[in-house]
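Researcher: Here's a chain I'd like modeled. Treat it as a single chain, no partners, no ligands.
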Amino acid sequence: VSLLVGVAAAHRGPAYAASTYVIEELKRRLPLWKREEYSDGSSRWLGGHTPPAAARGAERASERGVE
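Model: Modeled as a single isolated chain. Structure tokens:
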């Protein structure tokens, strides 16, 4: 899956800030992983994280014995 973020602004700085904000919010709210590809042909996955709300829901479900 790929992600395309499109922003428009009169100047480059605000456009960059807006696109950075969108990406950082997505990373904060969703469990995203990233695969880095290197010029030597190797690659590695960088781990995502579980969003806080989802983690709280999982903890509550676990407490009730729900997997």
